[in-house]
Amino acid sequence: MIQKLFSIAYLPPIDYLLEMKNADVVFVEADENYQKQTYRNRATILTGNGLQDLIIPVVRNSTAKKIKEIQIDNSAAWQRNHWKTIESAYNNSPFFLYYRDLFEPFFQKKHTFLFDFNLDLLLMLKKLFAITNSFSLTKDFAEKIENIEDFREYFLPKNRIFRQKKIEYRQVFAEKFDFMKNIACIDYLFTTGTEFLT
Questions:
Q1: β-bridge mates for residue 26, sequence order
Q2: Residue 84 host element (H or E)
Q3: Residue range 65-82: mean pLDDT, rounded
Q4: What pLDDT is recorded for position 159?
Q5: H or E segment to which residue 18 belongs
Q6: What is the C-alpha separation between 45 and 178, in angstroms, rounded?
Q7: What is the pLDDT of residue 118?
Q8: Are 42 and 9 a contacting pair, CB within 8 Å?
């Protein structure tokens, strides 16, 4: 039985979902301390101007340290800005119109906590990509867990080349840029649909 443990992520890279799909049991870390500059509050997409990070602002100067306690800073217009950037980048992609109504509400409804927002989005992505394995949240944090592959620190924005087999598909701005690996899973979804690789 293959068991894997992941950190929560905002529109994670396609390899994150591939690793999740290729497991019998998936755990998502719900008791870790929040870490900055990770996919916990950022996603990278390809726009007409190149790669762009979409960063969810979080409330600063808070005593919250646990990932489930981190609040989104909704005083900024981040949802509107993220959606406009996504729409601009993918409006001409083959499947954007098909999926837009599923994603747009995430950029309209206000969430208080980052973890809750990401979890709701991740559960939708699991359905879209037909990931049907057992899925649960951790209850306690542990540095090392036996018999579980630990991906909590594997997917990092600074390292977009992961161990998964090479996945290439036609990206929206293929005429302007070389293939960009492991950007947000919506890049694959909006250009290729749910013909998900295994």
A1: 4, 135
A2: helix 78-90
A3: 94
A4: 64
A5: helix 14-21
A6: 14
A7: 97
A8: no
